[in-house]
Amino acid sequence: MLNLQQLLCCKQHNFILKFLRMRTNGILMAISSLPSDFGIGDFGENAYKFVDYLKKANIKIWQILPLNPTGYGNSPYQSNCGHAIDSIYIDLYELEKDGLIEKLKPFNKNKKLVDYPAVRAHKEKYLREAFNNDRETLQKPAFKKFIESNPWVVDYAEFTILSLKNNYLDWWYWDKKERYHHYKHEFDFSSYEDEILYLEWCQFIAFKQYRKLKEYINKNGIQIMGDIPFYVGGNSSDCWANQDEFKLDENDIPESVAGVPPDYFSKTGQRWGNPIYDWEFMKEDKFSFWMERIEFAASLFDIIRIDHFRAFDTYWEVDRDCDTAIVGEWKNAYGDELFAQLFLKHPDINIIAEDLGDLFPSVLELRDKYHLKGMNVLEFTIFNPSFEVSQNQIIYSGTHDNDTLRGWYKNLKENEVELLKIIMRREKVKGRSIKDKLFNMIFGSICDVAIIPIQDYLWKDNEARMNVPGILGGHNWEYKLVDFTEFVEQIPYILDLNKKYNR
What is the pTM of this model? Predict the structure, then answer.
């Protein structure tokens, strides 16, 4: 009989390790998708109810999408501040309970989609009422400490005011006093003092409510996973207040912009338009910009997923005058030096590398050097025989940028359906329905973690898809639950999967 050491050396060791290691699972669900009386999910009662349901389902990780103020097309990945929390997520009922709002009127309670402009306008009037009734908070030590400990808040407030003053024109076209105010403090904000206080107060309340929710999440044995987008917006307080960190020309205009080159999915690539980092300066500055970003994220999340991880190794620099991403060049970053410094200071930080797409070997070497978990998205990898499945991965049915699992299956070509049947027979996948078989395949993977978007647990078609990359409008970022009825019905099913595959 083989001993443990011999088993670990066995050719089939991955399948043996599956039964020896600790495995867990999670769910992908944006805060905005929670049921709400005000047309968008928030940090209120339903967020706490959702945590209770996760505990009942034995789900150990709640992955959310960025909480930053939304930008173009309501995307949280195109924000005017990478640190701020969108005030749209503030729980109004808590403010009413504190006596700061006289009487609330629900809005778009039973809508299945988030109407961002209407919801924002409805909640804004109540937030301003609460602010005007909460002047005492502005003098309390907790508020003053929050502002002192988070200098980005003042940058965000001042940038927001200047942006509105300039009709949202890119900051590099502003008057020089406004353009360089972070450095020279020459613009007179005296007539905007109350508006600055309001924006600061909103951040104070939003972070107070979020941290209270996170405490409850952790108390119930659940970890929260959040995102750091690799790039920040050009027209953002991040860029405006950290101009040396970016490649800008003599007029402070980005010399080039970010994107990805043409590939199977797009003949012209994707031109994102974010400014490119000045990695030479960052290296000289001991990566202070990135260190602060990651440390800040670590204070908010138990697990950090870094979007577009490959750019820490090599990134596609697009000619700013090109309307597409065709004209560009691969450039090298200093990710290795950055992560060496980061893990020396924070050896226990938990980072997930979004390593999707066609990657250079050096990207995978960087990921593996620091033992970062990668991603295995079933919709992308199941028909890719060259994809290497490993234990140190999170397996997803899909992400917020993909078809729902049901939508993906319905759109398969006839030959792909037949190939899927062959794969399932070969892997001896059990299940009565195609949903059962796909879920058993995901949970039966050797990957350490399985994370399922809530739309897939509910077996929704593509009308529930969260986002279609590269497209403005439509229903991007708008998916929302009306209530928890359907999810509660799935809890026994999820528990059964956990019983079979997780420990």
Answer: 0.93
